[in-house]
Amino acid sequence: MEVDTRFDAEFSRQLQKLQAEGNYRIFTDLERYRGHFPLARRHHDQLTQDVTVWCSNDYLGMGQNPSVIQAMSDALQQSGAGAGGTRNISGTTHTHVLLEQELAELHGKEAALVFTSGYVANWSTLATLGSRLPNAVIFSDEKNHASMIEGIRHSRVPKKIWKRNDVEDLDRKLSEFGSETHKIVAFESIHSMDGDIAPISDICEVAKHHCALTYLDEVHAVGVYGPSGGGISERDRIADQVSIIQGTLGKAYGVVGGYIAGSKESIDFIRSFASGFIFTTSLPPSIVAGALASVRHLKVSQSERHRHKRMVKLLRDRLDQVGVPHLANPGHIVPVIVKNPVKCKQISDMLMAEFGIYVQPINYPTVARGEERLRITPTALHTEADVDYLVASLSELWSQCALARAVA
Description:
Helix content is 44%, strand content 16%.
């Protein structure tokens, strides 16, 4: 029997539409050079090219840290490649237990739970909270990450969307429900694309007034902010006001995985009921060992955070000097807004081909249509020379694009 090609035809139709809109994703094939990040080798059309990466979430360069690499290597030699099962069935190693203890301490919480990714942590936790708590309603910031939105959707409970960081709007929406409702307020400390920072204390105060549980996504903040790397909530000394803190091990900590931290009861609740945790194979011991080494390192070392902060400021100052517009925010993410998906990709391609600079174009649905951008992320391992070269390259291309618009 021949394969029915109608499905492939429909797949192709929708992919062609995506390409015509300028929103088709093309993966950049890279090899990172150990010890030389942000330098990487790009593979393209059977050719290679050295490029400088300017869009990595390895903010502090911990993916290159010798103590992290050594811990992973040691664990690989000691325990082998995989965990061998789910956390419940032979997949909980002693290193998993130590990492969860370390993460709980990092956020001043009683317990923590490690997931295979930050996405899974958000999806599983919010879906479980909504579906298992009786008469629940989830109040979601309008710009929450896709993983949070997906978890809320799968909870199958009513949701109320409140304006980004708008505490008064949140208060109004919480006021629509009485004390019989289990209210869950879900929001991010730092927005992944805009880089703005939420008024966590004000949000928690309103939530407390309405007897609501607060769920804070700190994925772009952990490691980077706070004296121990506990995120914005640690920096502002308000972690104790947040019910559950969610973080990642795949950004500033330089490895992979996600986690939540909270009260002993809340963590045990998620551990016992979240299918995304229960039915998936545990992270390999080598990964967990690397994450543990990274968390421990950043609890005491300030040098990575200080250098990272200096590189962010330097980039912003240099962009201002040459007149390349970027979205002002108090965080470490530097969005250069292009507002056109085709033009955004064109600039990205020219940076790569002509200057050896890799900045991924960010288009719909990651950002809204008309908000297309180059999301630039300085790291602790970029140099002042790297910054100057990036800014000079961007300035040259920006002038070309401005001239093209004027001619058109």
